[in-house]
Amino acid sequence: MKFTEKTCMEFVTALSDKTPVPGGGGASAMVAAIGIALGNMVGNYTVGKKKYADVEADVYELMEKATFLQAEFLRLVEEDAIAFEPLSKAYALPKQTAKEQQKKAEIMEAALKAACSVPLELMKRCCEAINLFVDFAKKGSVIAISDAGVGVIFCKAALQGASLNVFINTKSMKDTEYAKSCNEQAEKMLAEYTMLADTIFAQVKERL
């Protein structure tokens, strides 16, 4: 059974178990999916209301993008588990002889890069989601505006969570240039979008 097909209770239990997956990466992707779903909730409370007729077309467009991202986040829950499995197995490879050490190093490097690619993609999608909340918070129905604040903070948390999975993997890479590139991408997204998410949260709070 896929992790995204489990009940909430099963997913949380799986997180707490002593198993490699799901872990922080899968949890971050799930939190992001919940966050952007709250954006769609705001949209659904906005469209069809006369008070918001002038922004209805914009909100429908936001909801279309949010629905796409929601599906992407759920996909990344599964992708994170798939990408991490080879890495968890690589750690257990023997390294008694020089040949075994070389083979393990090669497999580890490939597995680290694969495991790093998913959280980087998750971070990029979280940035897209946070951008959508700029307008969800501005144009959304006032009766659901608090949900926009909750949603954007969830996406911020997912962004930060995913970054830790980038950094823990790049730390072990032998390819320092590749690791540096990944780290720079992650740091840039963190610097820009945690600030934007905090700004949106503050704006929502002011509207309450």
Output the CATH topology: Four Helix Bundle (Hemerythrin (Met), subunit A)
Overall mean confidence score, pLDDT: 94
Please report the number of helical segments: 6
Q: Which class best fits the helix and strand makeup? A: mainly alpha
What is the CATH homology-level superfamily? Formiminotetrahydrofolate cyclodeaminase monomer, up-and-down helical bundle
Overall form:
elongated
What radius of gyration results from the CA coordinates?
19 Å
Instruction: Count up the domains.
Output: 1
> CATH architecture, please?
Up-down Bundle
Helix percent band? over 70%
Strand segment count: 0
- The separation of the N and C termini measures 41 Å
Pick out the low-confidence regions.
Answer: none
Q: How would you sum up this structure, described in words?
A:
The protein has six helices and no strands. It has one domain (20-87, 97-207): Up-down Bundle (Four Helix Bundle (Hemerythrin (Met), subunit A)), CATH 1.20.120. 38% of the residues are buried. The termini are far apart. With 208 residues, the chain is mainly α. The mean pLDDT is 94. It has helices at 8-16, 24-46, 56-91, 98-139, 145-170, 176-207. The longest helix is centred in the middle third of the chain and has 42 residues, at 98-139. It is elongated and about 75 Å long. Helix content is 81%, strand content 0%.
